[in-house]
Design a protein that fits this description.
This protein is of the alpha/beta class and 199 residues long. Helices cover 43% and strands 17% of the residues.
Length: 199
């Protein structure tokens, strides 16, 4: 079987819906237990509120990215507002993780990822936006882990080498799915890697 790469990217922010507070730490346990590396896009306010978890993400060898300070849509901010949000997040992430998130950035909600103005501002402060190829909306209430696994694996295989998967650090279904998801991806020939390992 020919092997190929998949990047599991995990937006790391405060929950949009009720979820167990322990989920982010358990997510790291699941990744560690599977020997899988992921890429975490960390919100600045989350890093400031969870410095031990943020540090563990870096210490566990995962790639660190910037997900803005407060999750405001980038295309609704002025140029200075973008620079302020990204800069505040960078300082909070650096302080908590001991690692720089540059040059990795993800626009909250994906808003602004196709906006030349937003991308130009990000480029000017040393960042490039990272979108995604596979999104099965793990954040939706009532998601079922088994269905999430099936959908993600099918989409990754259909995409082939270099698929970028969007997940979140807090949903119950994502945590439940993670060990099986990694196992099923590997069985399908996909090896989880960091974004920096995608040529």
């Amino acid at each position: 079987m020919s092997r190929f790469r998949v990047a599991l990217t995990i937006d790391t922010e405060h929950p949009d819906h009720p979820a167990a507070a322990a989920n982010p730490g358990l997510m790291l346990d699941a990744l560690s237990g599977a020997g899988a590396r992921a890429s975490f896009f960390i919100q600045g306010r989350w890093a400031a509120a969870n410095p031990r978890l943020a540090r563990r993400i870096a210490d566990d060898g995962h790639l660190i990215g910037n997900h803005s300070n407060s999750h405001a849509p980038m295309d609704m901010l002025t140029d200075e507002g973008i620079r302020d949000s990204v800069g505040k997040a960078e300082r909070a992430i650096q302080a908590a993780c001991g690692a720089s998130p540059r040059p990795w950035f993800r626009c909250p909600y994906g808003q602004g990822e196709n906006d030349p103005r937003v991308l130009e501002v990000l480029d000017g402060i040393g960042y490039r936006n990272v979108g995604w190829d596979v999104d099965h909306e793990d954040w939706q209430p009532g998601r079922i882990a088994a269905e999430l696994v099936d959908g993600v694996v099918e989409s990754v295989v259909a995409h082939g080498d270099g698929a970028v998967v969007l997940l979140h650090v807090w949903p119950d279904a994502t945590l439940e799915a993670m060990p099986t998801l990694i196992s099923r991806l590997r069985d399908a020939g996909a090896d989880p890697v960091g974004l920096d390992e995608l040529a």
